[in-house]
Design a protein that fits this description.
This protein has 138 residues and is mostly helical. The chain contains four helices and four strands. The strands form two sheets. The protein has a two-stranded antiparallel sheet. A two-stranded antiparallel ribbon has the order 3-4. A hairpin with a 6-residue loop joins strand 3 and strand 4 (75-77). The relative contact order is 0.11.
Length: 138
């Protein structure tokens, strides 16, 4: 999930995300966000990023989709809004917890996560060596 700075398609054309101040000078928040460097650290820039993220958390700014329509920017795969994605994750987490707890008795402990064996790196090397051997004429 990521907030996305983009215009929003409305019946009359395009609009800026709600909540961003629009002006005719360098204080226009939509344009400032578009022009921010990746390493923005100035107090005003960080404050604007925080405001943008708050708008995103409140569904005033769209979420970056996995795939969007190239003409309308409509979300085709993923979630259009943060709230939609958050609700799906919360539902999936609740379902997983129910599944984990189904059939458990009080006092049963949830088994720890399985970790890759310590020799996994060696296994990768053995696979690579085997593939090299297949490539050599026999």
């Amino acid at each position: 999930m990521n907030p996305l700075i983009q215009p929003i398609r409305v019946p009359s054309g395009w609009a800026r995300p709600a909540g961003l101040i629009e002006t005719d000078d360098d204080t226009d928040e939509f344009l400032r966000l578009r022009r921010l460097p990746l390493d923005a650290v100035a107090e005003g820039d960080v404050a604007l990023i925080r405001k943008f993220c708050t708008l995103w958390h409140n569904d005033a700014v769209v979420n970056q989709p996995i795939r969007a329509n190239s003409d309308t920017f409509d979300c085709e795969i993923g979630h259009r809004l943060y709230g939609e994605a958050k609700a799906q994750v919360a539902g999936a987490n609740a379902a997983r917890r129910e599944q984990q707890h189904a059939g458990r008795r009080d006092g049963d402990r949830i088994p720890p996560c399985r970790r890759a064996p310590r020799h996994a790196a060696g296994a990768a090397q053995r696979i690579e060596d085997a593939l090299r051997g297949l490539a050599q004429p026999g």
